[in-house]
Fold these 2 entries.
Entry 1:
Amino acid sequence: MNEIKKIVIFYFSGTGNARQIAVWLSEFAAKKSIDCQIFNIATTDQNTLNSLSKNLLVIIISPVHGFNFPKITLNFIRHFPKGKNRIVLMNTRAGMKIARFVTPGLSGISFMLSSLILRAKGYKIVGQIPFDMPSNWLSIHPALNENTVKFLYKKNYKRVEKHSNKIFSGKSDFLARRDLVQDILISPIAFGYYLVGRFAFAKSFYASVDCDNCGLCVKQCPVKAIKMANERPYWTFQCESCMQCMNICPKKAIETAHGLFVAVSLICSMLTTIILHNILKISIQSLFIKLLIFGLLFFALLWVFYKIQHLLLRNKFIGKIITLASLTHYKFWGRYYLRSKNQRQIKF
Ligand SMILES: Cc1cc2nc3c(=O)[nH]c(=O)nc-3n(C[C@H](O)[C@H](O)[C@H](O)COP(=O)(O)O)c2cc1C
Ligand code: SF4
Ligand code: SF4
């Protein structure tokens, strides 16, 4: 077994969880006098990868998005040059708290796909470790409260210590294998999210009338997915739903357009039925065609309606109505608890 002397950590993080794991790892490494460098995938020049020395341990940490790593992480992994390093893959998933227990998130194909890509380039995967950090997916659920976030951080701190001891002593650690069956079962949803779903979620964000056009969200977005259009942030299909912009906006002006999604879904259902029954005269049982028509209509209408919504937001009265139809606007929904005020200023 080879004791580890040098580590390089690459992380991507939307709301700070993956970054926190990277920081804890570097602290535990320092205690063992292991040389450790941390790089943020969003700001790291891909050429850094060409100068990785052969015997250092590489650790990659990223949140799971739709049962897979987000595109920015996968792209980074795809661009690794051929190499022989040992690599530990880690993810942060949607942890929740029930009583004194942490309920786990789902890794899906995040480890399987990235391991395949890296193995094909010659690397040796020596670990796949998930961490159930607080769930940050505010498009679909209310924010966890501060105590729950603190509880989950405390639990994960201990887990990072335990797993770092193992990997720093040169052992392999495949904790993720205990979830293999469920991860394989949900893999079709992972592909669905990656190929289709994430584009719909990209259009779920808008800046309400409370936006003062400060430009922070445009500047901070790790994938430069927000542009200014008519002096208002406009979300493009590049958005990875990392949730950073929504949680750093000083005015709490970034909302999820739940109302828009309900309206577009209802219109698409009606139009799909009309097209199938009255125009194509195909039996409603043909589920594949129904889904295909619904999907095509959904994206076409979402694109158009999103543009219209963007224009209507200029009108204060209509803007207020749009905001009232967004669950994220209400106090009970809240925002993701960013652990330190500094997190609002830094690149995660
Ligand atoms: C768009 C999106 C999709 C997500 N999908 C999953 C998922 O498939 N499985 C899971 O366990 N957690 C999922 N989550 C939760 C995050 O992975 C989790 O909260 C993670 O700790 C966030 O890390 P970060 O703060 O470094 O971005 C999702 C979150 C978002 C925003
Ligand atoms: S950070 Fe908030 S207030 Fe600033 S431009 Fe973005 S949405 Fe508007
Ligand atoms: S637009 Fe917001 S949610 Fe989307 S990738 Fe950028 S910071 Fe993340």
Note: The pocket of iron/sulfur cluster (ligand 2) is lined by residues 207, 211-217, 233, 249, 251, 253-254 (CB under 6 Å).
Entry 2:
Amino acid sequence: MRLEANPYTEAARLPEGFLFRLYEDGDENHWAQIETAVGEFATPEDGLRYFAGEFAPELDEFRRRGLFVVDVDSGLPVATATAWYRGEKTAPMPLLHWVAVRPEYQGRGLGGVVSRQALHILANIYPGRNVYLFTQTWSHVAIRMYYRLGFRPLTRQPAEAGMDWAEIAKVPRNEFEAAMEALKAVYPEDFWRELYDSRC
Ligand SMILES: CC(C)(COP(=O)(O)OP(=O)(O)OC[C@H]1O[C@@H](n2cnc3c(N)ncnc32)[C@H](O)[C@@H]1OP(=O)(O)O)[C@@H](O)C(=O)NCCC(=O)NCCS
């Protein structure tokens, strides 16, 4: 999906009882636990292995881009999103990446707010740039949330002037038509049509 000309110049506001925090040493454990709780990994160890491959080599970047929502009462991170990128830092593809909210905290607005704040971080790093995200049909709740945030489904691979083509070749293959067919089973017809007609 693609968000045109990132408009999130304002910081997002959390509901009472929660605060934002950027990555601190050891938060990879929280990240792996949250992502495992939503089914992205079979075990937290798998999540930690992924983190070690994807983010640990660029930990200084992750420190300013890896966002957590902390439940003030427990002091524990319960949601996360990453203001990431693909490609060379000089011509990057801004990415909203790895959005997740612990199941027992879902439905309270945290997913929308953590996404908006990650988009705000991206707006500060890459003002006015288009933002991309990769998703899949089992994330149909997220797809609807992304649509409300302004993302539209892309029918082809992302491509923009100045992007690093070698890196773009590595992004997941876009399966727009097959994904929309699968989503027919989960969305009301009017929303499905709205999403389909918004393709870009
Ligand atoms: C997608 C996700 C982050 C949303 O988190 P959340 O905190 O529940 O989201 P919010 O409370 O901000 O709600 C966002 C929207 O989803 C809707 N929603 C939330 N839970 C829902 C559910 N179980 N079924 C249908 N809609 C739901 C809300 O009504 C809201 O819609 P609105 O803006 O039109 O009112 C969360 O469900 C999640 O972690 N899912 C698993 C991981 C995933 O799919 N990540 C995305 C990978 S690309």
Note: Strands lie at 2-3, 18-22, 66-71, 76-86, 93-101, 131-132.
